[in-house]
Design brief:
Elements lengths: L3 E14 L8 E14 L3 E5 L6 H9 L6 E6 L2 E2 L7 E4 L11 H11 L6 H14 L15 H14 L4 E5 L7 H18 L2 E5 L3 H7 L2 E6 L4 E7 L15 H14 L3 H5 L11 H6 L16
Parallel strand pairs: 3-8, 3-9, 6-7, 7-8
Antiparallel strand pairs: 1-2, 1-4, 4-5, 9-10
Bound molecules: adenosine-5'-triphosphate.
Adenosine-5'-triphosphate (ATP) binds next to β1, β2 and α1.
Protein name: ATP-binding cassette domain-containing protein
GO molecular function: ATP binding; ATP hydrolysis activity
InterPro entries: AAA+_ATPase, ABC_transporter-like_ATP-bd, ABC_transporter-like_CS, ABC_transporter_ATP-bind, P-loop_NTPase
Length: 300
């Protein structure tokens, strides 16, 4: 039986926006009445237009900020600030530039109280680097690594805390298409082998559907959960592109329609002209990186 590892219930977050001499300050509701669960060991992705509160929600679950009202429970207990049970991976890698790849991980292991002595921490750090395919880069410094490599180090560092939950805020957003696809499948492999519960934020519909077992779709102003889409897709035959299966295309289209406010077209087929989505439309959302789905601020 699955249980809620993370339970977000009726969460509101209102920020105070300070004024200036000319403009009075005001309150800004970032998210309103947000409800969703992430089950133990589940991989949940979250998409939404810019400003819909994705990062706010992730920060709340990480304990970096507190909700104005509502509750966030981890294993049934209200969270009380950040904790080692929750590792966070941001889009920017936040590695220590003066430490080698290996020492960045050693540093994290020490902070987590893992390893009895330096030699053991170095051995563990090498294991984590091997896990993310970087064992030959142990002595490089962050500025000597590509963006994808830096993000692998950041993921290895987060995993070295052995968190039960991994919170990822657009971790692959700055990477090129090929590296992004590679890291997506590596992340799935790591997730399957560690059993970690993952909440992953992205702008990309493609990425959300590829990675998530469920996709939480947000709407903006204020940010609310519009729908939660189950992504039940069979394993494709070996050698087949998992993004080209009919199931994948159906889920991607459903999430795209929800994001673009066309979900009512799919659900209200009375008007045949209104719900017709041309085939070219599907092709336009089929880019491998999902960049085509990136939503602009203030979409009209
Ligand atoms: N510290 C803050 N003070 C005031 N307003 C904030 C603050 N942080 C976020 N907001 C507002 O809350 C709303 C949600 O912001 P958030 O960054 O969570 O959205 P997002 O979906 O992650 O956006 P993006 O996709 O552009 O990163 C926005 O309107 C933003 O301006």
């Amino acid at each position: 039986m699955t249980s809620a590892k993370i339970r977000v219930s009726d969460v509101n977050k209102i920020f105070e926006v300070p004024g200036s001499r000319r403009v009075p300050g005001h309150l800004a509701t970032a998210v309103e009445g947000v409800d969703f669960d992430v089950h133990d060991g589940e991989f949940v992705t979250m998409v939404g237009p810019s400003g819909s509160g994705k990062t706010t929600i992730l920060d709340l679950v990480a304990g970096l900020t507190t909700p104005t009202s509502g509750s966030i429970l981890v294993d049934g207990t209200p969270i009380n600030g950040p904790g080692r049970d929750r590792g966070v991976v941001f889009q920017q890698y936040a590695l220590l530039p003066w430490k080698s790849t290996l020492d960045n991980i050693v540093f994290a292991l020490k902070a987590a109280g893992r390893g009895r002595h330096r030699a053991e921490r170095r051995r563990l750090a090498r294991e984590y680097l091997e896990l993310v395919g970087l064992k030959d880069y142990a002595n490089r410094y962050p500025h000597q690594l590509s963006g994808g490599m830096k993000q692998r180090v950041a993921i290895a560092r987060s995993l070295s805390y052995q968190p039960e939950i991994l919170l990822m805020d657009e971790p692959f957003g700055a990477l090129d298409a090929q590296t992004r696809e590679l890291l997506q499948s590596e992340l799935l492999r790591l997730w399957k082998s560690t059993g970690t519960t993952v909440l992953f934020i992205t702008h990309s519909v493609e990425e959300a559907v590829y990675l998530g077992q469920r996709v939480v779709v947000l709407e903006a102003r204020p940010g609310r959960v519009k729908a939660v889409v189950d992504v039940d897709r069979p394993e494709p035959p070996a050698g087949t592109d998992p993004r080209s299966t009919p199931e994948f295309i159906t889920h991607r289209r459903r999430v795209w329609e929800l994001l673009h406010g066309r979900d009512h077209l799919a659900e209200a087929p009375e008007d045949p002209d209104a719900h017709h989505v041309p085939a070219t439309h599907d092709l336009s959302i089929a880019g491998p990186t999902g960049d085509a789905h990136r939503l602009e601020r203030n979409p009209s």
